[in-house]
Design goal:
With 276 residues, this protein is α/β, with parallel strands linked by helices. The protein is globular and about 60 Å long. It contains 9 helices and 10 strands. It has one domain: P-loop containing nucleotide triphosphate hydrolases (Rossmann fold), CATH 3.40.50. The structure holds adenosine-5'-diphosphate and magnesium ion (MG).
């Protein structure tokens, strides 16, 4: 009973079955890319999916999803998320667009995270994917204080510096009793388009070894390819091409493994509640 000594669990979001945070220690490792492509892959394989941009200082979800519409506020003051590529999406970038940095104190940040969870009309969701900012700070804490997370996905490149930060993220999730559903190795390797030779730019395999060390699942590797970057920049993530597309297939593989882990974690969490 992992939760027996923990802080009181916050109330679940009605209608939302599983909440999965995507985090890492470092910026630039592909958290948002993974979050966006996983959300689309899950939606395209029949799940009801929401995507919450919790990177309040650097919201990249609007650009990567190709959506910028200002959300409407509906009955009961509920914010209507944008429906983009089959995914219900919310971002501070929809509400306060522009290039000016958001300067915020802690309490305001906590307030935004709470509103994005509780004051957005998510409806019935199988998955709410939360794109975290880099680091192990305030936003992740606000999240776990507001809703029970099904678990977290940690994204890392295979380089030692990225893995060092990923380990911190793993430790943070352990401290706040959030199960780690798995590690994704992004920018795992590069295949030369001319000679087809595979080049391990960041030293392939490091994230899988880290997963073993920490006894957490390894969800898969994502190739470093221009199409992934281009898809993000154009608001048309590669996952839109479907599981048969060679450029998107790895995301679908990760989504499949994530589903297994999330289902297992959700079932285990229910057991804990029933034991009480
Ligand atoms: N596997 C990949 N192949 C090519 N480019 C990638 C890949 N993953 C991420 N990128 C690019 O790297 C940059 C950083 O990714 P991003 O998802 O914004 O990282 P983070 O959210 O961790 O800061 C973006 O320009 C993105 O398009
Ligand atoms: Mg990001």
């Amino acid at each position: 009973m992992a939760h027996s000594h923990a802080m009181p669990q916050p109330a679940a979001l009605p209608g939302v079955a599983k909440i999965v945070a995507v985090g890492s220690g470092k910026g630039g490792v592909g958290k948002t890319t993974v979050a966006v492509n996983l959300a689309i892959a899950l939606a395209k394989t029949g799940q009801q999916v929401g995507l919450m941009d919790a990177d309040v200082y650097g919201p990249n979800v609007p650009l990567m999803m190709g959506s910028s519409q200002q959300p409407r506020v509906g009955p009961g003051n509920m914010i209507q998320p944008n429906l983009t590529h089959g995914v219900k999406t919310i971002s501070i970038g929809y509400i306060a667009p522009g290039d000016k940095p958001m300067v915020m104190r802690g309490p305001m940040l906590h307030q935004i995270i709470r509103q994005f969870l509780q004051q957005v009309d998510w409806g019935e969701l199988d998955y709410l994917i939360v794109d975290l900012p880099p680091g192990t700070g305030d936003v992740a804490l606000s999240l776990v204080q507001t809703v029970p997370l099904t678990g977290a996905v940690v994204v890392s490149t295979p380089s030692d510096v990225s893995l060092e930060d990923a380990r911190k993220a793993l430790e943070m999730f352990a401290q706040v009793n959030v199960p780690v559903l798995g590690i994704v190795e992004n920018m795992s390797y590069f295949r030369c388009p001319h000679c087809n030779e595979v080049i391990d730019i960041f030293s392939r395999g490091g994230a899988e070894r880290t997963a073993k060390q920490f006894n957490v699942p390894f969800l898969g590797s994502i190739e470093l390819i221009p199409a992934i970057r281009e898809g993000g920049d154009r608001g048309l993530p590669v996952a839109l091409a479907g599981p048969k597309s060679p450029q998107a297939a790895e995301f679908y593989g990760v989504a499949e493994k994530l589903k297994e882990q999330a289902d297992a974690a959700a079932a285990a969490a229910n057991d804990v509640i029933e034991i009480r």
